[in-house]
Task: structure prediction
Amino acid sequence: MVCALGAAVCFGTASVFQAVAARAAAVPGPGSGSGVDAALFLRAVRQWRYVAGLGLDAVGFVLQIIALRHVPIYTVGAALAASLAVTAVVAARMLRMRLTRLEWGAVGVVCAGLLMLGLASGEEGSGTGTLALKLGLLGVAVLVLVAGAAAGRLPDGPRALVLGLAAGTGFGVVEVAVRLIGSLSVRELRNPALYALLLGGAAAFLLLTSALQRGSVTAATAGLVLGETVGPAVVGVVWLGDRTREGLTWAAVAGFAVAVAGALALSRFGEP
Result:
């Protein structure tokens, strides 16, 4: 649980560091702010804040993998969604973004939900997943790409939501795949979950970037939060044996719902 929370802190703080660097590196002019600006990235990566953000992302990813190996997927997913609360608090200071009373309340709600989850979470399931589950996971990763391509034809409003949801599903594939991959060895090259992880992660990153560039940040982030939490949690409970502490299932369900609801209320902070 500590690793899951550490990953959330790393991801949430990294987002703001990278946003500060990107703002400082932006050059106003015709066409700025549209599309993928490779020159902007090259300017931003020269700044220590952007490099520090990338470092925090790397540390957060390692902590996420460790957490997924020791606690249920539903706990890790909720904690990662809570990185929006970290982003909101750090952005309020570094980017001088003003948080409303409702948003401060949402930060408190996220913390309360995670506290309930921490008290109710049991050990991770012992299930290693069947070949059918691993192949199905790879199929979902392919569908994420297909859905992303189809979403490009939608109007701006629903397009951002669908792209965000597809990106969240891709990140969810990564969460589940980590549990289905054993020790790093040549033998794992035959494991479909490994390719699901690579494809799902790459597709998620590309679709989320597109969603944030071409539509509502709030809608895209809301879709992302739902996609990366609900589906993986169900897979963990139904197919991998994730459980709660005896008699505390209600607290785990309530904590998960509260944490995700609080994160959704902070969706606008997906922009950094």
Summary: The chain has two domains: 1-121, 125-241.
